[in-house]
Write a structure and sequence with these properties.
Blueprint lengths: L11 E7 L11 H12 L9 E7 L13 E5 L16 H16 L3 E5 L12 H5 L1 E2 L11 E7 L13 E6 L6 E2 L4 E7 L5 E8 L5 E5 L11 H15 L1
Parallel strand pairs: 1-2, 1-3, 3-4, 4-11
Antiparallel strand pairs: 5-8, 6-7, 6-9, 9-10, 10-11
């Protein structure tokens, strides 16, 4: 007798990378937001398959098992002021295998959900900007004061926004004047100080895999918005299917 496999016994493996050391700063609680991200993604169920979500701080060996991961979530940023100058922690050579592994996996069809400060992390990885589809540019990019934010979503058939509300409101920090690759598909915008729309949610497959970047998620208050949570679940669903 042939037994039909139980999808629930083969969960999607999701790895959430939380910023630490050279990839953290005093203004973002990556541990807290990574925990909330994990709680959100733990809700996901596709075709009877659940998710097995692991949160891991960013260390040079954090991606040694990346080939077993179905979805990588990057919630990391820049280093603490003076961290690298003081020679604290592993040097660039020690981090090189980490970045090479991530670059190879992402270009070989990997799915990446990059949130908020992910546009301003891994500055020592030449290919990270292409994988994300954009970059925070020091001296050019900025954010208005933290407060009520509203992201206006694109209309059309992309699965992340198809059937979604026209906008999502939350308490958050808006990133503006990012360097955004012309090849990305922008699915959401936030207003800058002059009320001009700034890309805040996009997808890219230019590098060979799939990435969704969302510029929101400064702290845990973002995840109090159920509409924002549902938007992230839509993004994760697209990345896994």
């Amino acid at each position: 007798m042939t037994t039909t496999p139980d999808p629930s016994e083969n969960p999607y493996r999701v790895l959430v990378l939380a910023g630490r050391g050279r990839y953290e700063d005093p203004w973002h609680d990556h541990a807290a937001t990574s925990h909330r991200l994990a709680t959100v993604l733990d809700e996901l169920e596709l075709g009877g398959r659940t998710t097995d979500v692991v949160v891991r701080s960013v260390f040079p060996d954090a991606l040694d098992d990346l080939d077993e991961v179905d979805l990588l979530v990057v919630n990391a940023g820049t280093s603490w002021p003076g961290f690298l100058e003081a020679g604290i922690g592993p040097d660039d050579d020690a981090w090189a295998p980490f970045h090479e592994r991530l670059d190879r996996w992402a270009r070989d069809g990997g799915g990446v959900l990059a949130v908020h400060q992910a546009a301003n992390t891994f500055g020592d990885a030449p290919g990270w900007e292409e994988i994300v589809g954009g970059r925070w540019v020091p001296g050019t990019s900025y954010h208005p004061p933290f407060g009520r934010a509203e992201i206006t979503l694109a209309t059309g058939g992309h699965p992340i926004v198809a059937g979604a509300p026209g906008s999502v409101a939350l308490e958050d920090e808006r990133y503006c004047a990012l360097r955004v690759a012309p090849s990305v598909e922008v699915l959401g915008w936030v207003p800058d100080d002059d009320d001009e729309p700034q890309p805040a949610l996009w997808t890219t497959e230019e590098h060979g895999g799939r990435t969704v970047y969302c510029g929101l998620g400064h702290d845990v208050r973002a995840y109090d918005s159920r509409e924002y949570v549902l938007l992230l679940l839509r993004a994760a669903t697209w990345l896994l299917t």
